[in-house]
Amino acid sequence: MDNHFFAALRARMPEGGRRFIETPDGAVITYDDLLAGTARYARALQTLGAMPGDRIAIQIEKSADAVFLMLACIRAGFVILPLNTAYTVHELDYFVGDAEPAILVCDPSRESELKGIAARYGVKAVVTMDPTGAGTLRQMAAGQATDFGDVARGGDDLAAILYTSGTTGRSKGAMLSHDNLVSNALTLVDYWRFTGEDVLLHALPIYHTHGLFVAINTVLMAGASMLLLPKFVPNDVMRLMPRATVMMGVPTFYTRLLGHPDLGRMTTAGIRLFVSGSAPLLAETHQEWFARTGHAILERYGMTETNMNTSNPYDGERIAGTVGLPLPGVSLRVVDAETGALLPKDTIGMIEVKGPNVFSGYWRMPEKTAAEFKADGFFITGDLGTVDERGYVRILGRGKDLIISGGFNVYPKEVEELIDAIDGVVESAVIGLPHRDFGEGVTAVIVPVTGKCPDEAAILTLIETRLAKFKQPKRIVFVDELPRNAMGKVQKNALRDRFRGFYTER
Ligand code: AMP
Fold first, then answer.
1. Closest protein CA for atom 4 of ligand 1
2. Which among 278, 332, 268, 269 is positioned nearest to 300, based on CA atoms?
3. Between residues 313 and 463, which one has the greater pLDDT?
4. By CB distance 3.0 to 4.6 Å, which of 40, 54, 258, 378 could disulfide with 141?
5. How far is it, in rounded angstroms, from Cα 245 to Cα 268?
6. Is the dihedral of CA 68, 184, 278, 259 positive or negative?
7. 451's torsion region: left (phi>0), alpha (psi -120 to 50) or beta?
8. Gap between the Cα atoms of 55 and 159, Å rounded
9. Ligand 1 test: best mutation among 278, 318, 352, most atoms within 8 Å of CB?
10. Whether residue 506 has pLDDT greater than 80
């Protein structure tokens, strides 16, 4: 048995002198450097006492060294445990206690605080890496040899634990196997037509599945290269755009870039593919992007637990407001959440998926895992949606965002789409708030165009004829912006908390 992930990577690796990463300051890192750098980090982690199967918790800023560190974990049979850089020390206590990593890699500024937590949970060592890659770990790695015998791992062995972004409730550790990652990356290389000539503009964070696995693994399995930006800064992205062939982003990337004066056909002429995911892309953004650049953004749908499930086609029609078709090898169905019965086309229900991309369960939560898988192996995504005649999937919100008003189900997306199309509205979030008569009162939280002062009554009148009475918002609240997490997802629970007493306290 060899190392499932790394063997797949080696089988596709281009000639060693080929470029793997280029940083904005012009530094070039080759595939030979990848092999040497990951060997050094793998050896350094072994020296610190990590054993195959151990978790390596990593809370650091993005850098080429950070990418090497993740890949070194895979080579040495460790389990990558990336943590959002925004997590506070208090939050880290939960993750470290839950995952019990052997090693904790953190920013130097956090070292002393984290040592206390590490001692409490038996972590063997706390080492550091700063945004340039420097720190105690690189010092240790520098003295190590540049060869390394990949530790044998099978397809089902754990490669990573990714804690779900948790817009509600407690974060759960999704266990991803070597094969989950390899199979999904190979599917995407094929579906999105990646080749060794591709240059990916990488501005996503690498503690989340989108930037870490969708982006980097696709590049690796194609033997391609990437321009690695530390973070998303519109000016930097626009400056590097002419040198890239593909960009992957969350919807906020696209809305922000639309506000940049340099965005146009000339600056995007070298790009063959723009991909969007992690949160819904407004149909309007899709259309504006097409008008400005001539490119139809390809929207896809995935989750931490499942990797990528669906994608709009490369050659066929990319339909705004849909997430496309199930990827090859992925089975997707829409069922009645109560009875489990398969629903007809165009009927809203719970989306369930099955395939080699789907994780094996939540870390140390066998009951949660059992509750979210069906007996026939389908995973209950928690997303509500439909499949149309042609097989295109639409996401209509999270199950927990469903509003039940006066006993009737209201799907927020349906109301949001109508409101978003109104002149003077940038975007909206429709939520249910505690209401004495209705249980939940449908409420629209609206971000108006700057300088415009839309009128609540006028908006309500505009949608009156388009929506059944029970779906119409009882009230509208105007805000400057919607609360979002790092991946651009609107945090409806924050809105529900903020406006909790809106109907009951009046
Ligand atoms: P995460 O695990 O952080 O990647 O979040 C996964 C969730 O993001 C999914 O269950 C969906 O609710 C949402 N999501 C991902 N991609 C899309 C998309 N293209 N459109 C709408 N929602 C999406």
1. 303
2. 278
3. 313
4. 40
5. 9
6. positive
7. left
8. 9
9. 278
10. no
Residue 465 neighbours by CB under 8 Å, 6+ apart: none
CA-nearest residue for atom 23, ligand 1, is: 279
Residue 406 has pLDDT above 80, yes or no: no
User: pLDDT grade, residue 410 (50/70/90)?
Assistant: confident
Among the listed residues 278, 314, 283, the one whose alpha carbon sits nearest the alpha carbon of residue 298: 314
What are 216's strand-pairing partners? none
pLDDT of residue 166: 54
For ligand 1, atom 8: residue with the closest CA: 278
Does residue 218 contact residue 185 with C-beta atoms inside 8 Å? Answer: yes
Q: What is the pLDDT of residues 151-210, one digit of tens each?
A: 999 999 999 999 986 544 578 999 999 999 999 999 999 999 999 999 999 999 999 999
Mean of all residue pLDDT scores within the chain: 94
Token pair belonging to 426 = 């940038």
Confidence of residue 303 (pLDDT cuts 50, 70, 90): very high
Q: For residues 205 and 464, what is the distance between their CA atoms, to the nearest angstrom? A: 41
Which DSSP string do the residues of 478-498 spell out, in sequence order?
E-S---B-TT--B-HHHHHHH
Contacts 24+ apart (CB under 8 A), 267-270: 267/238, 267/241, 267/242, 268/241, 268/293, 268/294, 268/295, 269/242, 270/241, 270/242, 270/243, 270/244, 270/245
**What is the pLDDT, as a whole number, of residue 282?**
85
pLDDT value at residue 169: 54
Nearest CA owner, ligand 1 atom 15: 278
Per-residue pLDDT tens over the stretch 132-143: 999 999 999 999
| Nearest protein CA to atom 21 of ligand 1, as residue | 280
- Count of beta carbons in the 10 Å neighbourhood of residue 246: 24
How many whole angstroms separate alpha carbon 174 and alpha carbon 372? 12
Q: Are 397 and 413 in contact (CB under 8 A)?
A: yes
Tens digits of per-residue pLDDT, 220-251? 999 999 999 999 999 999 999 999 999 999 98
- Rounded Cα gap, residues 318 and 296, in angstroms: 7
Question: How many angstroms separate the alpha carbon of residue 401 from the centre of ligand 1?
Answer: 13
- Phi (first) and psi of residue 273, to 5 degrees: -155, 125
| Ligand 1 mutation target, pool 299, 489, 493, most atoms within 8 A of CB | 489
Contact 404, 440 (CB under 8 A): yes
Residue in 195, 249, 204, 264 with CA at minimum distance from that of residue 67: 204
